[in-house]
Design goal:
The chain is α+β, with helices and mostly antiparallel strands. It has 25 helices and 26 strands. The two termini are 38 Å apart.
Length: 785
């Protein structure tokens, strides 16, 4: 019986080659997109699950401040007090590019991590060489990954090699480990010993006068025993929180498996996934699959007139409705199976393309794991059944007398169902078009919004260790740069717009508005170099260095100043800093956040970490050559790391650009799939009305009138779809724009444009078929009537 259904289905597919190809290609195209998205989702949800003790590992959090920063001393207290904790380790990343020297060669590493020996027990990292147990022999030991070892030492054996970190911290490589897997939220190239105080990279203090309030924040991971209940343990710890004071007042747990996608804390230092993007991709995959199924239904029903006689003959010679139903259902499953085979082939061919879209490696081999093959087979049967059950019910239920008399026309509720599917396709297309337009407009808005300073032809040169290594050479470097005819201005600073890492508690006299304020420590040429203007108060004068500061407009309003007379920013410094002026607001973070208060302190008493260079008009190319030559001549042992400010600020919106690229791509793909279905409907419409078209042409109807008649329904469906799509689009984009403090407007014309584009796409799709029907000889249409 199965063989009979298979032969019949195969014969029918061969006899309707045009529809078979359209169905198969459309289905396979949609399935390939869904499979590519599935591979990406599987990878994103697999983060950290490969670690041997993944189910037992949690990270400690500061529940009161919603932070993952915990003083390192908490680790030993917990280990000594709670038997449910089998092991614990410290983890801290250096937040800045770090200069590392191997012999005479200098490098900047951005992935240095400070850990203790327990880290290698808690996280099952494979060792290549060296001791896997307590690989840090002493406080100056370091562990390197294979890829970083090749960067630092080439083909030489790394064991025993010496490194100089930050200019004056000697370390020795005592072990080599495998690179951290791509789906690990924790990763580093060089691991240094946290027991060395020089490698406690972060430091904070609540009160500069009270040494007991000093904290060295780390990330603390706990490996619990298998029988431990994390919830009960957390209650026990918080019930005895006095044991952790003064370091913590309330703690929480975050499971290792939840860190990548569901970490709400600040200062987490780990890779972070984008749950919004994953949810969006899941929705897009479902939509594309639904569109592919709708296409199959519409195209199958569109073949009704050609298949009616075959169905009528079968019913006349004794086939019952169940036989006809199973025939259509088997055919649908067969088409779905062939589409899956072709879809997997399309994924394989397009793998480089999808990897570029998702910006990650995708493993197509996952599709052929036994469990996944079973899932694919189940999906084939399920999707095939869902796709075929509608046409099977419709076409198997038609009376054979009506079929053989030529009056088997689908109408009424069935027409409504088919039209509803078409409206859904149009509405989906309009929503996607609208979202693409809004996302692109928002990205352009944030990129081109006035940042409050001139980003063009402004270079940031990282130089954190030059002043500590050789102040005289650093001074000569600055003098040489200032003498260049291609350089307009040079400024040094500790902290710059886009990277402020110093926050100081304000202590404005007679103010209840004191708060922690981000601070820039700059030289006297900072305002000129960045193009920031003083809008209130006075400008800098000789002798101001180390004594004065300025605040921005937001800070002036926050502290509710009426003027600047006798206003000082105390900030823990004896005598404080006199506030002499107010500068215009400038963007010192991305536009995801509103501009807040900021303080600019003018002082040469702090070693800067950046040199900021403003080029003359047209002098960027020659100026860069001059900087590189001068740098190599004066400080050849230090690597040169730089970035232009316009590129740097643009990079802050990489996730949004990726979001836009992703939604734009899949919107186009979804619209293509919709067009395949719309083409099927156009064919169905023209074939169903072939007699009417012939009669109209015999009576003198023009080609344009026939095309208008055939296209009228599609215009109506687009209008209905627009009414449905507008509130959905508005809600979705309003939610997305909530991520930005400054956002573009949802103008009415964007809705209109999305609708018009959808209408244009629909008319372009159907007009060719309409034209073919309209120019057809009416004698051929009426020959057998």
């Amino acid at each position: 019986m199965v063989w009979y259904y298979f032969k019949t289905a195969l014969k029918n597919l061969k006899s309707n080659k045009k529809f078979t190809v359209i169905n198969l290609v459309g289905f396979a195209f949609g399935i390939s997109i869904c499979l590519a998205i599935a591979l990406f989702l599987v990878k994103e949800y697999s983060y950290d699950r490969f670690y041997k003790h993944a189910d037992q590992i949690v990270r400690l959090t500061d529940a009161k401040n919603n932070s993952s920063s915990i003083d390192y001393r908490v680790k030993d207290i917990l280990l000594s007090k709670y038997s449910e904790i089998e092991n614990a380790c410290l983890v801290q990343r250096n937040g800045f590019p770090t200069e590392v020297k191997s012999g005479e060669k200098g490098f900047y590493l951005e992935d240095i991590m400070s850990v203790d020996n327990s880290f290698f027990d808690v996280f099952s990292i494979p060792f290549v060489s060296g001791k896997s147990q307590k690989p840090f022999v002493n406080i100056n030991s370091a562990v390197v990954t294979e890829s970083t070892a090749k960067i630092l030492f080439g083909t030489e054996d790394p064991l025993g090699k010496e490194l100089l970190i930050e200019g004056d911290i000697p370390t020795t490589i005592t072990a080599v480990i495998r690179d951290f897997p791509e789906n690990s939220s924790i990763s580093a190239g060089l691991l240094v010993n946290a027991e060395n105080d020089r490698f406690k990279f972060s430091f904070s203090c609540g009160d500069y006068r009270d040494k007991s309030s000093h904290r060295w924040p780390f990330r603390i991971y706990l490996q619990l025993i298998k029988s431990a209940d994390p919830d009960l343990l957390l209650v026990k710890i918080n019930d005895h929180i006095d044991w952790l004071k003064p370091y913590e007042e309330q703690v929480g747990f975050l499971k290792l498996k939840d860190i990548y996608l569901h970490d709400p804390t600040h200062g987490n230092e780990t890779k972070q996934g984008n749950t919004g993007l994953l949810n969006l991709l899941t929705i897009i995959a479902v939509i594309i699959l639904v569109l592919a199924v709708i296409n199959y239904i519409n195209l199958t029903v569109a073949q009704q007139n050609k298949r009616n006689k075959d169905t009528g003959v079968k019913k006349t010679i004794g086939a019952n409705r169940a036989n006809i139903f199973l025939h259509f259902l088997f055919e649908s499953v067969l088409v779905t199976f062939l589409a899956f085979i072709l879809g997997i082939f399309l994924v394989w061919i397009g793998l480089p393309f999808y990897q570029a879209v998702f910006d990650t490696h995708l493993n197509i081999g996952l599709l052929f794991h036994f469990s996944n093959l079973l899932l694919l087979l189940g999906s084939i049967f399920l999707i095939g059944t869902i796709s075929g059950i509608g046409p099977a019910l419709v076409l198997s239920g038609i009376n054979p007398v009506r079929i053989l008399s030529g009056s088997a026309i689908i109408a009424g509720k069935r027409n409504f169902f088919r039209n509803s599917l078409t409206v859904f396709q149009f509405a989906t297309s309009i929503v996607l078009i609208f979202c693409v337009i809004i996302v692109e407009r928002q990205i352009q808005f944030v990129k081109h919004r006035n940042s409050g300073f001139d980003k063009e032809q402004l270079l940031r040169l990282d130089a954190p260790n030059i002043w500590e290594g050789d102040i005289q050479k650093a001074t000569v470097l600055l003098d040489e740069l200032r003498r260049s005819p291609f350089i307009k201005s040079v400024s040094t600073a500790s902290g710059v717009p886009g990277s402020i890492n110093m926050y100081m508690g304000s202590n404005i006299e007679n103010s209840d508005k004191n708060m922690s304020v981000p601070c820039l420590l700059v030289d006297t040429t900072f305002l000129k170099t960045f193009g920031i203007k003083v809008i209130k108060g006075r400008n800098l004068e000789p002798g101001d260095d180390g004594k004065v500061c300025m605040i921005n407009e937001v800070a002036y309003k926050h502290f509710e100043f009426e003027n600047l007379d006798n206003k000082r920013f105390m900030n823990g410094r004896k005598g404080g800093y006199e506030i002499i002026g107010v500068v215009n607001d400038f963007q010192y973070t991305s536009l995801h956040k509103t501009i807040g208060p900021v303080c600019i302190m003018f002082t040469s008493g702090v070693s800067p970490n950046t040199v900021n260079i403003r080029f003359t008009k047209g002098g960027v190319g020659q100026g860069m050559n001059f900087i590189q030559d001068t740098w190599q001549k004066l400080i050849p042992g230090h690597p040169m790391k730089y970035q232009f400010y316009d590129e740097w600020f643009d990079s802050m919106y990489r996730s949004e650009e990726r979001f836009a690229k992703t939604i734009g791509l899949f919107a186009v793909l979804a619209i293509v799939i919709s067009c395949i279905g719309i083409l099927g409907l156009a064919i169905f419409s023209s074939e169903r009305r072939i007699k009417e078209i012939g009669i109209r042409k015999v009576n003198g109807a023009k080609i344009s009138e026939v095309m208008t008649m055939l296209n009228r329904d599609f215009v109506k469906w687009v209008f209905i779809a627009s009414v449905i799509a507008i509130p959905v689009s508005w809600y979705a984009m309003n939610k997305w724009l909530e991520n930005f403090a400054y956002k573009t407007e949802l103008s009415w014309w964007i809705f209109a444009l999305a609708g018009l584009l959808a209408l244009g796409i629909a008319l372009l799709t159907v007009s060719f078929q309409s034209y073919k029907a309209a120019v057809k000889n009416p004698v051929e249409s009426l020959r057998y009537e």
